[in-house]
Design a protein that fits this description.
The protein is mainly beta. It contains two helices and 13 strands. It has one domain: Rieske Iron-sulfur Protein (3-layer Sandwich), CATH 2.102.10. It is globular, with a radius of gyration of 14 Å. The N and C termini lie far apart (28 Å). The structure holds FE2/S2 (inorganic) cluster (FES).
Length: 129
């Protein structure tokens, strides 16, 4: 079952924001054409969280071994020689009647990361607030 999670998308085209829900990081992207899209920030190389989130030349960069993902599609753009079987999982973005935005978070997103990784992300996220 999915749950709506309110988000505040980035205002500037080509920029990203990180939202954390129950230890699962979500990358919110405002594309160069102004669309809002979202991905689970989980790297399939070792099922690790892409936290801290860093974007370089339009690519989301995994902090662990440097694999790169296209920030607008989530596809692997450079695996840096590692076996990265899939890109970032896409997340549905909703526009509510009042114009605010939300993403649909699903239980299966949690399975993309180990419990240990989710704990790390939740702890880091709590220390930033
Ligand atoms: S965990 Fe992301 S590149 Fe290794």
């Amino acid at each position: 079952m999915a749950k709506e999670l309110p988000i505040a998308p980035p205002r500037i085209e080509g920029s990203t924001a990180l939202v954390v829900h129950e230890g699962v990081p979500y990358c919110i992207v405002k594309t160069r054409s102004g669309e809002i899209c979202a991905f689970v920030a989980a790297c399939a190389h070792e099922d690790r969280a892409i936290v801290p989130l860093r974007v370089k030349r339009g690519d989301i960069v995994c902090p662990h071994h440097g694999a790169r993902f296209d920030a607008e599609t989530g596809r692997v753009s450079d695996d840096r020689g590692y076996d990265v079987p899939t890109g970032l999982e896409s997340v549905e973005v909703l526009t509510r009647p009042d114009g605010s935005r939300a993403i649909l978070v699903r239980k299966r997103h949690r399975k993309l990361l180990s419990k240990k990784e989710r704990r790390r992300v939740a702890k880091e996220s709590a220390s930033r607030t």
